[in-house]
Amino acid sequence: MARKTKDLAEAYPAACAEAKCKAVAPFVGALARAVDAGAELTFVRLNGNSKELFNGRVDGRAAVAIASALTGTATVEEVDLSYNRIDDAGAEAIAAMLARSPAVRRLDLRGNDIGPEGAAHIARALAATGGSGGSGGSETDDDAASASSSSCRLESLRMDHNPLGDDGLVAVASSLRTNTSLRELDVGDCDAGIRGVTALCVAVFEDNTTLKSLGMENPSRLFTHQCEHVFHAARMLASSGIANLKIGKWRVDAGGIETLAAYGVAASRHLECLNLRCNAVCEVGASAVARIVREGERLRYLNLERNPLGDRGAEIIARALPHSCALEEIDLRCAGIADVGLCALADGIVATTPSRRPRVVRLWGNAFGEGALVQWRRALRESEEVGCPIATDFVITRVDGEGAGIARLDVPDDVAVNAWDAVY
Protein backbone atom coordinates (compact mmCIF):
# COMPACT_ATOMS: atom_id res chain seq x y z
CA MET A 1 0.00 0.00 0.00
CA ALA A 2 1.27 3.45 -0.92
CA ARG A 3 2.25 5.51 2.12
CA LYS A 4 1.22 9.10 2.72
CA THR A 5 3.18 11.45 4.97
CA LYS A 6 1.21 10.50 8.07
CA ASP A 7 2.12 6.85 7.47
CA LEU A 8 5.80 7.77 7.13
CA ALA A 9 5.71 9.69 10.43
CA GLU A 10 4.19 6.69 12.19
CA ALA A 11 6.61 4.19 10.60
CA TYR A 12 9.85 6.06 11.29
CA PRO A 13 10.15 5.54 15.10
CA ALA A 14 9.67 1.78 14.68
CA ALA A 15 12.23 1.75 11.87
CA CYS A 16 14.75 3.51 14.13
CA ALA A 17 14.13 0.98 16.90
CA GLU A 18 14.65 -1.90 14.50
CA ALA A 19 17.84 -0.40 13.07
CA LYS A 20 19.05 0.47 16.59
CA CYS A 21 19.80 4.07 15.74
CA LYS A 22 18.75 7.52 16.91
CA ALA A 23 16.09 9.38 14.96
CA VAL A 24 17.43 12.09 12.67
CA ALA A 25 15.95 15.27 14.11
CA PRO A 26 15.56 17.25 10.84
CA PHE A 27 13.66 14.31 9.32
CA VAL A 28 11.39 14.04 12.34
CA GLY A 29 10.77 17.80 12.19
CA ALA A 30 9.96 17.78 8.47
CA LEU A 31 7.47 14.94 8.93
CA ALA A 32 5.84 16.64 11.93
CA ARG A 33 5.48 19.99 10.17
CA ALA A 34 3.88 18.38 7.14
CA VAL A 35 1.43 16.37 9.25
CA ASP A 36 0.50 19.39 11.38
CA ALA A 37 -0.15 21.46 8.26
CA GLY A 38 -2.20 18.73 6.64
CA ALA A 39 0.29 18.69 3.74
CA GLU A 40 2.21 15.96 1.99
CA LEU A 41 6.01 15.75 2.10
CA THR A 42 7.42 15.89 -1.44
CA PHE A 43 11.14 16.04 -0.69
CA VAL A 44 13.55 14.89 2.02
CA ARG A 45 16.65 17.06 2.39
CA LEU A 46 19.17 15.59 4.82
CA ASN A 47 22.48 16.71 3.34
CA GLY A 48 25.28 16.23 5.83
CA ASN A 49 26.96 19.54 5.04
CA SER A 50 23.94 21.46 6.35
CA LYS A 51 24.10 23.34 9.63
CA GLU A 52 21.63 20.94 11.26
CA LEU A 53 23.57 17.78 10.41
CA PHE A 54 27.16 18.93 10.16
CA ASN A 55 28.08 17.37 13.52
CA GLY A 56 25.62 14.50 13.36
CA ARG A 57 25.65 13.09 9.86
CA VAL A 58 23.51 10.20 8.68
CA ASP A 59 25.40 6.89 8.94
CA GLY A 60 24.58 3.45 7.58
CA ARG A 61 22.11 2.44 10.28
CA ALA A 62 20.32 5.79 10.18
CA ALA A 63 20.04 5.43 6.40
CA VAL A 64 18.49 1.97 6.88
CA ALA A 65 15.80 3.48 9.13
CA ILE A 66 15.10 6.39 6.78
CA ALA A 67 14.86 4.07 3.78
CA SER A 68 12.57 1.70 5.66
CA ALA A 69 10.20 4.53 6.59
CA LEU A 70 10.18 5.89 3.03
CA THR A 71 9.51 2.53 1.40
CA GLY A 72 6.26 2.71 -0.53
CA THR A 73 5.98 6.50 -0.29
CA ALA A 74 3.35 7.97 -2.57
CA THR A 75 4.43 11.59 -2.21
CA VAL A 76 8.21 11.96 -1.77
CA GLU A 77 9.81 12.66 -5.15
CA GLU A 78 13.29 13.85 -4.11
CA VAL A 79 15.69 12.46 -1.49
CA ASP A 80 18.95 14.28 -0.69
CA LEU A 81 21.35 12.28 1.51
CA SER A 82 24.54 13.85 0.20
CA TYR A 83 27.72 14.36 2.24
CA ASN A 84 26.90 11.87 4.97
CA ARG A 85 28.50 8.62 6.14
CA ILE A 86 26.27 6.11 4.40
CA ASP A 87 27.97 2.77 3.76
CA ASP A 88 27.14 -0.30 1.66
CA ALA A 89 24.53 -1.50 4.15
CA GLY A 90 22.78 1.85 3.94
CA ALA A 91 22.97 1.72 0.15
CA GLU A 92 21.37 -1.72 0.17
CA ALA A 93 18.42 -0.39 2.18
CA ILE A 94 18.10 2.62 -0.11
CA ALA A 95 18.08 0.29 -3.14
CA ALA A 96 15.30 -1.77 -1.58
CA MET A 97 13.34 1.43 -0.99
CA LEU A 98 13.79 2.51 -4.61
CA ALA A 99 12.53 -0.83 -5.87
CA ARG A 100 9.23 -0.31 -4.03
CA SER A 101 8.88 3.47 -4.30
CA PRO A 102 8.26 4.56 -7.90
CA ALA A 103 7.30 8.04 -6.67
CA VAL A 104 10.98 8.80 -5.88
CA ARG A 105 12.48 10.47 -8.95
CA ARG A 106 15.65 12.19 -7.71
CA LEU A 107 18.27 10.73 -5.37
CA ASP A 108 21.45 12.48 -4.24
CA LEU A 109 24.08 10.27 -2.57
CA ARG A 110 27.14 12.43 -3.24
CA GLY A 111 30.02 12.34 -0.81
CA ASN A 112 29.25 9.16 1.14
CA ASP A 113 31.17 5.93 1.81
CA ILE A 114 29.40 3.69 -0.70
CA GLY A 115 31.68 1.13 -2.31
CA PRO A 116 31.33 -1.46 -5.09
CA GLU A 117 28.91 -3.63 -3.09
CA GLY A 118 26.56 -0.72 -2.39
CA ALA A 119 26.77 0.38 -6.02
CA ALA A 120 25.76 -3.12 -7.10
CA HIS A 121 22.63 -2.93 -4.92
CA ILE A 122 21.67 0.45 -6.39
CA ALA A 123 22.36 -0.90 -9.89
CA ARG A 124 20.03 -3.84 -9.40
CA ALA A 125 17.26 -1.43 -8.41
CA LEU A 126 17.93 0.69 -11.49
CA ALA A 127 17.80 -2.36 -13.73
CA ALA A 128 14.29 -3.20 -12.50
CA THR A 129 12.36 -0.46 -14.26
CA GLY A 130 9.10 -2.35 -14.55
CA GLY A 131 7.26 -3.74 -17.53
CA SER A 132 5.01 -6.69 -18.03
CA GLY A 133 7.79 -9.15 -17.38
CA GLY A 134 7.19 -11.31 -20.45
CA SER A 135 5.94 -14.40 -18.62
CA GLY A 136 3.71 -15.36 -21.50
CA GLY A 137 0.58 -15.75 -19.37
CA SER A 138 -2.31 -13.36 -19.03
CA GLU A 139 -1.69 -10.48 -16.63
CA THR A 140 -4.43 -9.28 -14.30
CA ASP A 141 -4.91 -5.67 -13.24
CA ASP A 142 -3.63 -6.60 -9.77
CA ASP A 143 -0.50 -8.12 -11.30
CA ALA A 144 0.11 -4.97 -13.36
CA ALA A 145 -0.39 -2.74 -10.31
CA SER A 146 1.99 -4.90 -8.32
CA ALA A 147 4.64 -4.69 -11.03
CA SER A 148 4.24 -0.91 -11.25
CA SER A 149 4.56 -0.46 -7.49
CA SER A 150 7.66 -2.65 -7.28
CA SER A 151 9.76 -0.92 -9.92
CA CYS A 152 12.26 1.92 -9.82
CA ARG A 153 11.32 5.12 -11.64
CA LEU A 154 14.39 7.14 -10.68
CA GLU A 155 15.24 9.96 -13.12
CA SER A 156 18.27 11.55 -11.44
CA LEU A 157 21.06 9.83 -9.50
CA ARG A 158 24.18 11.46 -8.09
CA MET A 159 26.80 9.12 -6.64
CA ASP A 160 29.92 11.22 -7.26
CA HIS A 161 32.57 11.32 -4.54
CA ASN A 162 31.96 7.74 -3.38
CA PRO A 163 34.61 4.96 -3.52
CA LEU A 164 32.64 2.97 -6.09
CA GLY A 165 35.73 1.78 -7.94
CA ASP A 166 35.74 0.08 -11.33
CA ASP A 167 33.51 -2.75 -10.10
CA GLY A 168 30.90 -0.27 -8.92
CA LEU A 169 30.90 1.58 -12.25
CA VAL A 170 30.68 -1.69 -14.17
CA ALA A 171 27.59 -2.63 -12.13
CA VAL A 172 25.97 0.73 -12.82
CA ALA A 173 26.87 0.41 -16.50
CA SER A 174 25.15 -2.95 -16.65
CA SER A 175 21.96 -1.44 -15.25
CA LEU A 176 21.95 1.23 -17.96
CA ARG A 177 21.45 -1.47 -20.57
CA THR A 178 17.91 -2.09 -19.32
CA ASN A 179 17.01 1.07 -17.40
CA THR A 180 14.65 3.41 -19.25
CA SER A 181 13.84 5.97 -16.55
CA LEU A 182 17.19 7.55 -15.64
CA ARG A 183 17.89 10.91 -17.27
CA GLU A 184 20.92 12.15 -15.34
CA LEU A 185 23.76 10.24 -13.69
CA ASP A 186 26.93 11.48 -12.02
CA VAL A 187 29.62 9.01 -10.96
CA GLY A 188 32.62 11.34 -10.97
CA ASP A 189 35.46 11.18 -8.43
CA CYS A 190 34.65 7.56 -7.62
CA ASP A 191 38.14 6.01 -7.46
CA ALA A 192 37.65 4.38 -10.86
CA GLY A 193 39.82 3.85 -13.90
CA ILE A 194 39.57 3.09 -17.58
CA ARG A 195 37.61 -0.14 -17.07
CA GLY A 196 34.80 1.63 -15.26
CA VAL A 197 34.44 4.65 -17.56
CA THR A 198 34.74 2.49 -20.66
CA ALA A 199 31.99 0.18 -19.38
CA LEU A 200 29.68 3.18 -18.91
CA CYS A 201 30.40 4.61 -22.37
CA VAL A 202 29.95 1.25 -24.08
CA ALA A 203 26.69 0.51 -22.25
CA VAL A 204 25.18 3.85 -23.26
CA PHE A 205 26.50 3.48 -26.83
CA GLU A 206 25.08 -0.01 -27.28
CA ASP A 207 21.82 -0.07 -25.33
CA ASN A 208 20.70 3.22 -23.76
CA THR A 209 18.78 5.96 -25.54
CA THR A 210 17.18 7.72 -22.57
CA LEU A 211 20.13 9.03 -20.50
CA LYS A 212 20.69 12.76 -21.11
CA SER A 213 23.34 13.89 -18.58
CA LEU A 214 26.43 11.89 -17.67
CA GLY A 215 29.17 12.97 -15.27
CA MET A 216 32.39 10.92 -15.13
CA GLU A 217 34.94 13.43 -13.89
CA ASN A 218 38.31 12.55 -12.40
CA PRO A 219 38.68 8.78 -12.81
CA SER A 220 41.63 8.82 -10.42
CA ARG A 221 43.10 5.50 -11.56
CA LEU A 222 43.21 6.39 -15.24
CA PHE A 223 46.71 5.35 -16.27
CA THR A 224 46.70 5.59 -20.05
CA HIS A 225 48.41 7.76 -22.62
CA GLN A 226 46.51 6.49 -25.66
CA CYS A 227 43.19 8.26 -24.94
CA GLU A 228 41.22 5.12 -25.80
CA HIS A 229 38.68 6.15 -23.16
CA VAL A 230 38.09 9.36 -25.15
CA PHE A 231 37.31 7.29 -28.25
CA HIS A 232 34.60 5.41 -26.33
CA ALA A 233 33.16 8.72 -25.08
CA ALA A 234 33.15 10.13 -28.63
CA ARG A 235 31.44 7.05 -30.02
CA MET A 236 28.85 7.30 -27.25
CA LEU A 237 28.14 10.96 -28.07
CA ALA A 238 27.66 10.18 -31.74
CA SER A 239 24.95 7.57 -31.27
CA SER A 240 23.21 8.32 -27.95
CA GLY A 241 20.93 11.02 -26.59
CA ILE A 242 23.59 12.48 -24.27
CA ALA A 243 23.12 16.25 -24.07
CA ASN A 244 25.41 17.01 -21.10
CA LEU A 245 28.81 15.36 -20.70
CA LYS A 246 31.24 16.09 -17.84
CA ILE A 247 34.71 14.62 -18.41
CA GLY A 248 36.96 16.97 -16.48
CA LYS A 249 40.34 15.58 -15.35
CA TRP A 250 40.28 12.88 -18.03
CA ARG A 251 43.81 13.65 -19.26
CA VAL A 252 42.45 14.68 -22.63
CA ASP A 253 45.34 16.01 -24.72
CA ALA A 254 45.63 17.31 -28.27
CA GLY A 255 45.06 13.87 -29.78
CA GLY A 256 42.14 13.18 -27.48
CA ILE A 257 40.35 16.44 -28.26
CA GLU A 258 40.74 15.75 -31.99
CA THR A 259 39.08 12.35 -31.48
CA LEU A 260 36.28 13.88 -29.43
CA ALA A 261 35.65 16.62 -31.99
CA ALA A 262 35.76 14.45 -35.11
CA TYR A 263 33.96 11.32 -33.91
CA GLY A 264 31.78 12.72 -31.13
CA VAL A 265 30.72 16.36 -31.22
CA ALA A 266 30.58 16.65 -35.01
CA ALA A 267 28.29 13.61 -35.19
CA SER A 268 26.13 14.37 -32.14
CA ARG A 269 22.60 15.64 -32.66
CA HIS A 270 21.98 16.25 -28.96
CA LEU A 271 25.08 17.64 -27.19
CA GLU A 272 24.36 20.93 -25.41
CA CYS A 273 26.91 21.09 -22.57
CA LEU A 274 30.50 19.84 -22.66
CA ASN A 275 32.73 20.15 -19.58
CA LEU A 276 36.42 19.55 -20.29
CA ARG A 277 37.89 21.40 -17.34
CA CYS A 278 41.33 20.50 -15.98
CA ASN A 279 42.55 18.52 -18.97
CA ALA A 280 45.68 18.86 -21.10
CA VAL A 281 44.34 20.57 -24.23
CA CYS A 282 47.06 22.92 -25.44
CA GLU A 283 47.49 25.18 -28.48
CA VAL A 284 48.02 22.09 -30.66
CA GLY A 285 44.53 20.90 -29.79
CA ALA A 286 42.94 24.34 -30.17
CA SER A 287 41.99 23.64 -33.79
CA ALA A 288 39.86 20.74 -32.57
CA VAL A 289 38.27 23.03 -29.97
CA ALA A 290 37.50 25.49 -32.76
CA ARG A 291 35.84 22.66 -34.68
CA ILE A 292 33.71 21.89 -31.63
CA VAL A 293 32.66 25.56 -31.47
CA ARG A 294 31.82 25.65 -35.18
CA GLU A 295 30.17 22.24 -35.57
CA GLY A 296 28.40 21.79 -32.25
CA GLU A 297 24.96 22.51 -33.65
CA ARG A 298 23.25 22.59 -30.25
CA LEU A 299 26.29 23.29 -28.04
CA ARG A 300 25.32 25.93 -25.47
CA TYR A 301 28.04 25.49 -22.83
CA LEU A 302 31.77 24.77 -23.23
CA ASN A 303 34.12 24.59 -20.25
CA LEU A 304 37.88 24.59 -20.91
CA GLU A 305 38.95 25.92 -17.53
CA ARG A 306 42.55 25.08 -16.62
CA ASN A 307 43.61 23.77 -20.01
CA PRO A 308 46.99 25.17 -21.16
CA LEU A 309 45.69 26.84 -24.31
CA GLY A 310 47.91 29.90 -24.20
CA ASP A 311 47.71 32.88 -26.55
CA ARG A 312 47.92 30.82 -29.72
CA GLY A 313 45.10 28.54 -28.62
CA ALA A 314 42.94 31.51 -27.67
CA GLU A 315 43.49 33.12 -31.07
CA ILE A 316 42.37 29.96 -32.87
CA ILE A 317 39.24 29.67 -30.71
CA ALA A 318 38.49 33.39 -31.17
CA ARG A 319 38.37 32.97 -34.95
CA ALA A 320 35.75 30.23 -34.54
CA LEU A 321 33.40 32.27 -32.32
CA PRO A 322 31.64 34.12 -35.18
CA HIS A 323 30.74 30.71 -36.65
CA SER A 324 29.24 29.16 -33.51
CA CYS A 325 25.66 28.00 -33.80
CA ALA A 326 24.27 28.10 -30.27
CA LEU A 327 27.10 28.86 -27.80
CA GLU A 328 25.79 30.74 -24.76
CA GLU A 329 28.62 30.29 -22.25
CA ILE A 330 32.34 29.67 -22.64
CA ASP A 331 34.71 29.13 -19.73
CA LEU A 332 38.43 29.78 -20.35
CA ARG A 333 39.53 30.53 -16.80
CA CYS A 334 43.16 29.92 -15.86
CA ALA A 335 44.06 28.83 -19.40
CA GLY A 336 47.48 30.49 -19.60
CA ILE A 337 46.18 33.27 -21.85
CA ALA A 338 47.98 36.62 -21.86
CA ASP A 339 47.26 39.98 -23.46
CA VAL A 340 47.51 38.89 -27.10
CA GLY A 341 45.09 35.97 -26.70
CA LEU A 342 42.65 37.98 -24.58
CA CYS A 343 42.57 40.75 -27.19
CA ALA A 344 41.86 38.16 -29.88
CA LEU A 345 38.95 36.77 -27.87
CA ALA A 346 37.47 40.26 -27.48
CA ASP A 347 37.80 40.79 -31.22
CA GLY A 348 36.13 37.44 -31.83
CA ILE A 349 33.18 38.49 -29.70
CA VAL A 350 32.80 41.77 -31.60
CA ALA A 351 32.99 39.94 -34.94
CA THR A 352 30.11 37.66 -33.91
CA THR A 353 26.55 38.59 -34.88
CA PRO A 354 25.14 40.21 -31.70
CA SER A 355 22.24 37.78 -31.34
CA ARG A 356 24.64 34.82 -31.50
CA ARG A 357 27.24 36.08 -29.04
CA PRO A 358 27.83 34.12 -25.82
CA ARG A 359 25.90 35.67 -22.96
CA VAL A 360 28.46 34.47 -20.38
CA VAL A 361 32.26 34.58 -20.73
CA ARG A 362 34.58 33.46 -17.93
CA LEU A 363 38.23 34.54 -18.17
CA TRP A 364 39.39 35.09 -14.60
CA GLY A 365 42.86 33.74 -13.85
CA ASN A 366 44.44 34.84 -17.13
CA ALA A 367 47.03 37.60 -17.53
CA PHE A 368 45.07 40.72 -18.42
CA GLY A 369 47.25 43.57 -19.59
CA GLU A 370 46.18 47.10 -20.38
CA GLY A 371 45.57 46.25 -24.04
CA ALA A 372 43.21 43.39 -23.17
CA LEU A 373 41.30 45.54 -20.68
CA VAL A 374 40.81 48.25 -23.30
CA GLN A 375 39.59 45.69 -25.85
CA TRP A 376 37.26 43.95 -23.43
CA ARG A 377 35.81 47.19 -22.11
CA ARG A 378 35.03 48.14 -25.71
CA ALA A 379 33.56 44.71 -26.55
CA LEU A 380 31.34 44.65 -23.47
CA ARG A 381 30.16 48.21 -24.02
CA GLU A 382 29.37 47.51 -27.68
CA SER A 383 27.41 44.36 -26.78
CA GLU A 384 25.44 46.32 -24.20
CA GLU A 385 24.62 49.02 -26.75
CA VAL A 386 23.23 46.53 -29.30
CA GLY A 387 21.00 44.91 -26.67
CA CYS A 388 23.01 41.73 -26.14
CA PRO A 389 24.84 42.23 -22.81
CA ILE A 390 27.54 39.76 -21.83
CA ALA A 391 28.02 38.66 -18.23
CA THR A 392 31.65 38.09 -17.23
CA ASP A 393 33.44 36.82 -14.15
CA PHE A 394 35.58 39.95 -14.02
CA VAL A 395 34.96 43.68 -13.82
CA ILE A 396 37.26 46.35 -15.22
CA THR A 397 37.81 48.94 -12.53
CA ARG A 398 39.98 51.41 -14.43
CA VAL A 399 41.95 51.87 -17.62
CA ASP A 400 44.35 54.79 -17.59
CA GLY A 401 47.90 55.78 -18.24
CA GLU A 402 49.07 54.64 -14.82
CA GLY A 403 47.86 51.07 -15.21
CA ALA A 404 44.74 49.00 -15.35
CA GLY A 405 42.52 47.44 -12.72
CA ILE A 406 40.48 44.28 -12.75
CA ALA A 407 38.50 42.47 -10.06
CA ARG A 408 36.79 39.14 -9.83
CA LEU A 409 33.02 39.09 -10.21
CA ASP A 410 30.43 36.37 -9.61
CA VAL A 411 28.17 35.60 -12.56
CA PRO A 412 24.52 35.67 -11.39
CA ASP A 413 22.89 32.25 -11.24
CA ASP A 414 19.95 33.39 -13.32
CA VAL A 415 22.31 34.38 -16.15
CA ALA A 416 24.74 31.46 -16.17
CA VAL A 417 23.95 28.27 -18.01
CA ASN A 418 23.31 25.55 -15.44
CA ALA A 419 25.36 22.85 -17.09
CA TRP A 420 23.84 20.04 -15.04
CA ASP A 421 20.16 20.91 -15.43
CA ALA A 422 20.41 22.54 -18.85
CA VAL A 423 18.82 19.61 -20.66
CA TYR A 424 15.58 19.73 -18.66
Structural features, described:
This protein has 424 residues and is of the alpha/beta class. It is 40% helix and 11% strand. It has helices at 5-19, 25-36, 60-70, 88-99, 116-127, 141-149, 165-176, 194-207, 228-239, 254-263, 286-295, 310-320, 339-351, 370-385; strands spanning 43-45, 78-80, 106-108, 156-158, 184-186, 213-215, 244-246, 273-275, 301-303, 329-331, 360-362, 391-392, 394-400, 403-408. The strands form two sheets. A twelve-stranded parallel beta sheet has the order 1-2-3-4-5-6-7-8-9-10-11-12, with no helix packed on it. A two-stranded antiparallel ribbon has the order 13-14. Strand 9, helix 12 (310-320) and strand 10 form a beta-alpha-beta unit. Helix 10 packs parallel to helix 11 (286-295) and helix 11 packs parallel to helix 12 (310-320). The longest helix is centred in the last third of the chain and has 16 residues, at 370-385. The relative contact order is 0.06. Mean pLDDT is 91; it is low at 131-149.
Mean pLDDT: 91
The side-by-side strand order for the widest beta sheet comes to 1-2-3-4-5-6-7-8-9-10-11-12
How much of the residues is beta strand, in percent? 5-15%
Q: Can you summarize the main beta sheet?
A: 12 strands, parallel
> How many whole angstroms does the radius of gyration measure?
24 Å
Question: What gap, in angstroms, lies between the N and C termini?
Answer: 31 Å
What is the approximate shape? globular
Order of helices and strands: HHEHEHEHHEHEHEHEHEHEHEHEHEEE
Roughly how much helix do the residues carry, as a percent range?
A: 25-40%
SSE-based structural type = alpha/beta
Low-confidence stretches: 131-149
Helices, by number, come to: 14
Count of distinct strands: 14
